[in-house]
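Q: Here's a chain of 329 amino acids. Please give me its 3D structure as C-alpha cells.
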Amino acid sequence: MTYRNIRNRLIDSMVNRSNDSIKHLLNPIYMFSVIFFLIGFTYNAIIYMIEGASFLYLNRVVGICFVLFVLYLLKSKNIDINKAIIFNALIIASLLMSIIIQQTIIQKSNSAETILVEMSTIFIPTILSGLTIYRNKSIVISFFIIVLYAFSAVYLDDKTLKRAIVIFSFISLGIQYELFHLMNVIDKMKSKNSKLTLEQKALIGFFDLTNEQWKQIRDGKLQREQAIAIVSRLEKDLQEKLYLRVKEIIQSEEEIKEILRKYHPDLTVGEQQTCCFILQGKSVTDIAKIKEVSNSGVTIMRSRIRKKLHLGHNDSLKDYLEKIVRRHL
C-alpha cells in the first residue's frame, strides 16, 4: 500500500468522525504526553538535584508545576483540549530552549550531549500540537527551535550537533507540514460535508421525505412504483405549499399597505407597492424589473415617497417603513 493510499484512508476516516470523536482522540494524546513529561521531568529533577545542577533542577521543577497547572485548567474546563496541547508545547519548548541556551553559554564537556537530548525531546509536544486548531503556531515554534539549535551547533562547533540539525529539521518540519496540510484538507472536507448535510435536511424537510426514502433516492435504489408515488405526492404538496406561500405574501403586503394608508393616506397604490418592495429588501434595479420601468423612474418614485413621508436628507426610507410596520405587526 502506497503512502498516498494510506493518507487518503486516514482522511476518509477522520472526515467520517464527528468533531467530538476527534476531540476524544486528542484527549488520550494529551494525557500520554503529560504522563511522559511528568515522569521524565521528575526523573531528571532527582538526577540534577543529586548532581547539584541547580539551574537544570529548577528548570525541571518549573516544568512539572506548569504542566500540572495546564492539566488543572483543562480539568476545571477553563481551557479546551486544543489550548491545553499548545500551552504544553509552549511551556516545554520554552524550558528546554532555556537549557540549550544555558548549555551553549557554559560549554561543559557534556553540553553537546545535553543539547542533543533536549532537542530530541522538544519536538514531541510541538509535533503533537500540529493536530490542534493552532497547528500553524506549532510550525512557528519548531522554526525558532531549529534556529536556536543551529546557533548552538555553530557556536559550540560540534560536528555531531551539526549533522543532527539536518535530520531534526527534516523530520520535524516535514511531519508538521504534512500534518498541517492533512488537517486543513480534513477541515475543508468536514465543512463541505456539513454543508451538504444541512442541504439534505432542508430538502428532506421541504419535500416531507422519510430518512429511508432519502437514502433510497441518494443511493439510486428507489423502485419505479415508489418513485411515481413520491413524485405524485410531491407535486400535490408543492402546489399546496406554493399556494400558501403566495397567500402569505399577499396577506402580508395587504397588512403593510393598510398600515401605510393609515399613516400616509396620500400615498398612491403604486407608491404603496414600492414601499412593500423596499421592505422586502429589493434594490432599485429589482423594483424596476418587476414594475417594468427604468431605474430613474423608480428613483423618482422613491423621492416622491420620501417627500410625502416628510423624511430628511439623512433619514433612511427603509428604516422609517420598518419602524411604523413593526409598531403594528
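Q: Can you summarize the key feature?
A: The radius of gyration is 34 Å.
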